[in-house]
Amino acid sequence: MNPQDHHQSLAQAGAPPFMPGPPPRAGPPAGPPPTGPGYYNAPPPMMIGEQPVYNYPPPVTQPVTTYMRPPSNLQGWNDAPTHVFHKKAAGAIAAVATTQELDAISNGVIIERLSSAMEAVSASILEPQQRKVVEDTSKRVEYLFERLGGEQVPAASAVILKRLVIALNDRDFAGATNQAVQLTTTSTGDDVRWSIGVKRMVDLYARIA
Description:
- This protein is an all-alpha fold.
- It contains nine helices and two strands; from the N terminus they run H-E-E-H-H-H-H-H-H-H-H.
């Protein structure tokens, strides 16, 4: 059946004739665009001929982070944190003393400087509970003086003692403590006795200085 005969048969049956609707409308939907939270209220579109051109906002880009970004607390990729150098700087003077400076410090100079520090400790710490510690420390330091007078202190320990004296002269108590710790960790035999006394004396002296 052709379309004309089909329409005639529908008309004879009493059905309303078919009326084609209007063609679809081109362009944006009628009415104002929605506004409010969540909507971008763009300015009126610019017309190029009969076609509107909308100015949409640029896309939002997120910064790219990668694991290769160097940490902010380092000077460089392989550099140690700055606070490490600051911590070590306290003992730098004694640690970098030249051979000539160390040779200029005799056993007599060591005895004189440590005696002065020990006397200051004995005169300043008078609490009864601390006096026993001070007296024991004084005996251990006196034993060191005997060893120094008899040239019985190992050469390596003597170098550490000289650096300790340099640190005390510069009031570098952190550096003096570092040297005293080296004495206690490297001394053997009878030298352990006086090395403990030197460490205690440096701790007490730093407390009152």
